[in-house]
Amino acid sequence: MKLSEKTLELNICAQASQKVSATQQLFWFGLTQKQEAKAGFDACAKLGGRLLIFQFKASNRVLKSKRRVFMAPHYQLDALRNQVNSFQRSVFYAFPLVGNTLELKKNPDLLSHTWLVDVASLKSVGPPTKSDGSLRKNGCHNVYVTPGKAVFHSEPVEIGAISFSSLVEQRFSESDGINWVSNQRFEGFWEFAQRFSSGARGLVVW
Fold first, then answer.
1. What's the Cα-to-Cα distance from 90 to each of 7, 116, 121, 193, rounded to whole Å?
2. Domain around 92
3. Which of 78, 142, 149, 201 holds its CA 20 to 30 A away from the CA of 42?
4. How confident is the model over 78-94, as pLDDT tens digits?
């Protein structure tokens, strides 16, 4: 049975919380629910934590080459890039290389099988096109992911990826955070949050 984006998202976040060190705290919230997003922002503002965003994807499609194929809408990529600017390791695509219950049984450690791409590294990705150069009707990029690497098409752009497990082990080092987006005003933060899809999760780290 195929695993939904929500199922993967919830379990990956739970595993990250279990793995974090005793001296660090994580607070997760869903960006598409106003009350939860507001609670997350309040905690961030009061506690001075870093705010990170993860845009989760799910896929049960694997090629013979062992590359797993994900879909990424270009409008979403543009919105993410416009907000993150030059801030590093603050907004990520999360690509789990587990897509169904059979794979989950073999690989229950989702954190180690989820690969993160820093949106700040995707500046050169253009609109998705067909072989004749015209825009793809669905407006989506095919993203081919293997451990340590993601390739965004149409014009191939290869990007390094880090495991979610590694990010947690590094205690989210070199992550700037995006607290600056809202100037500590919820209205600004909520406007920013509306740009994400239902597969997004916010994380406050302190």
1. 23, 11, 11, 14
2. 5-205
3. 78
4. 878 876 766 788 889 99
Lowest-pLDDT choice from 16-20, 69-73, 76-80, 194-198 = 194-198
CA–CA distance, 76 with 62 (Å, rounded to integer): 23
> Do the Cβ atoms of 58 and 143 come closer than 8 Å?
no
Our count of domains for the chain comes to 1
**Tokens (6 digits) for 39:** 């609670």
Helix (H) or strand (E) holding 116: strand 114-118
Residues 6+ apart with CB under 8 A from 60: 2, 3, 99, 100
Token representation of residue 48:
């001075």
CB atoms within 10 A of CB 194: 11
pLDDT digits over 40-67, tens only? 545 555 555 778 888 899 999 999 999 9
Q: Measured on CA atoms in the order 62, 6, 14, 144, is the torsion positive or negative?
A: positive
Rounded-to-integer distance, Cα 10 and Cα 199, Å: 10
